[in-house]
Design the sequence.
C-alpha cells in the first residue's frame, strides 16, 4: 500500500510527486497514457500568464511564487535527470498598449518589472517584427521553459523514487466509511492512505462519481512550430492573443487557439491557417520558413483560470490539484508545493481558501 497515490502524470502530478517523495513519503503515480505527454507536452512553456493583469489575485500569487522558484527548480531537475528544461529569461513583449494603465497598476502592486516602450524601442528589442505600435508593454523578467523537456526532466528526477504506472486509466476512486482507500483501474486495484487527483481536463469526469466535482472542462489548443534559425527573434512576442516563442535552437512556436470541442484532440486545417496568418503578419520572413509540426492539446479549463487545490469535502484523505487552464507550467511549482502543504498539514505558502472546491470563481 502506498502512503500517497497520485493520479495523473502531467507536470502537476510530477511536481506534486516530487514534493512529497522528498519528505520520505511512499508515492505511487498513475498515468492513463504516457507521463508528460498531454497538455504538459502541448503547451508553449511561457512562465507567465498572458496579459497577467487580467487574472484574479489567486492566480497571480501562485505565478509569482513559481517564477521566483523556477531557476533553482530547473537546475535541480537538470542535475537529477540529465535533461535540461532550457529555462531562458526571454522577456515578454506585448504589442498592444490599450491596457497600459491597468498593466502598470498591476505591476506596481506586485512589484514586478513592466515598462511602457515606444516604437523605436520595440524595433531595438525585436527588429524583425512587422507590428510596430506607438507604444508596447515590455516585461523583461518573463522566462520560458521548453515544456516537453521540463516534463522529461521532472519524470527523470522522480524515476526510481516513485512507483510509476503508465497506460493505466483509473476508473474508480475507492471510498470506505468516508475515507479514501485507493483507486481502481479496469484490471488492478491501487490501495493508498491518501489520493491526489491531478488529472487535468479529465478531473471532472473522475470526481463526478463522488457527487461533487470541480468546474473543469477540456479546452483544445492548437499550435504550430517553424524551423527558424537562432537569433531571428529573441523575445516572446504577444499580439492579439497570439504569441511567438523563440527556442534556443531557432525553432519558433506560434500559439494558440481556444476551442471548446470536448475531448476531441485532432488538429484542423482552419486553425493551422489562422496560426500561420498571425505568424507571418508579425514576422514576414516566416513565409519562407518551413513549418515543422502542428499539434493540439487539451487544457483543463476552469472559471477565471483559478486551479482547484485542496481537500475533497466529506472524504478524508482525498485531494485534488487540477484546473490550471492555460497556466499549468506557470503555476506548477507553486501548486505542487501548496498541495503538499495541504496533504502534510504544513503551513501553506499562500492562503488555501481561493482554491477550494466550493470557493467562488
Sequence:
Amino acid at each position: 500500500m502506498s502512503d500517497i497515490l497520485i493520479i495523473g502524470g502531467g507536470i502537476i502530478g510530477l511536481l506534486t510527486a516530487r514534493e512529497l517523495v522528498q519528505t520520505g513519503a511512499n508515492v505511487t503515480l498513475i498515468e492513463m497514457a504516457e507521463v508528460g505527454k498531454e497538455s504538459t507536452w502541448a503547451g508553449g512553456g511561457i512562465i507567465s500568464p498572458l496579459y497577467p493583469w487580467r487574472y484574479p489575485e489567486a492566480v497571480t500569487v501562485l505565478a509569482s511564487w513559481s517564477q521566483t522558484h523556477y531557476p533553482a527548480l530547473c537546475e535541480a531537475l537538470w542535475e537529477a535527470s540529465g535533461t535540461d528544461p532550457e529555462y531562458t529569461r526571454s522577456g515578454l513583449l506585448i504589442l498592444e498598449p490599450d491596457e497600459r494603465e491597468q498593466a502598470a497598476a498591476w505591476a506596481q502592486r506586485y512589484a514586478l518589472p513592466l515598462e511602457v516602450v515606444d516604437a523605436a524601442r520595440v524595433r531595438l528589442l525585436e527588429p524583425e517584427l512587422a507590428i510596430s505600435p506607438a507604444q508596447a508593454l515590455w516585461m523583461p523578467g518573463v522566462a520560458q521553459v521548453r515544456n516537453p523537456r521540463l516534463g522529461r526532466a521532472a519524470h527523470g528526477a522522480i524515476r526510481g523514487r516513485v512507483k510509476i504506472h503508465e497506460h493505466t486509466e483509473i476508473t474508480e476512486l475507492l471510498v470506505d466509511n468516508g475515507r479514501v482507500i485507493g483507486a481502481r483501474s479496469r484490471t488492478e486495484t491501487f490501495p493508498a492512505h491518501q489520493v491526489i487527483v491531478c488529472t487535468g481536463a479529465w478531473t471532472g469526469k473522475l470526481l463526478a462519481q463522488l457527487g461533487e466535482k470541480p468546474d473543469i472542462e477540456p479546452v483544445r489548443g492548437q499550435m504550430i512550430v517553424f524551423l527558424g534559425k537562432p537569433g531571428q527573434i529573441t523575445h516572446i512576442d504577444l499580439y492579439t492573443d497570439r504569441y511567438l516563442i523563440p527556442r534556443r535552437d531557432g525553432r519558433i512556436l506560434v500559439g494558440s487557439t481556444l476551442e471548446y470541442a470536448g475531448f476531441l484532440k485532432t488538429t484542423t486545417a482552419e486553425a493551422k491557417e489562422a496560426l500561420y496568418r498571425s505568424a507571418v503578419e508579425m514576422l514576414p520572413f516566416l513565409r519562407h520558413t518551413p513549418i515543422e509540426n502542428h499539434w493540439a492539446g487539451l487544457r483543463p479549463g476552469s472559471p477565471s483560470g483559478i486551479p482547484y487545490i485542496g481537500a475533497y469535502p466529506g472524504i478524508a484523505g482525498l485531494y485534488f490539484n487540477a484546473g490550471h487552464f492555460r497556466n499549468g507550467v506557470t503555476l506548477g511549482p507553486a501548486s505542487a508545493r501548496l498541495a503538499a502543504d495541504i496533504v502534510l498539514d504544513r503551513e501553506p505558502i499562500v492562503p488555501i481558501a481561493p482554491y477550494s472546491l466550493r470557493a467562488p470563481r
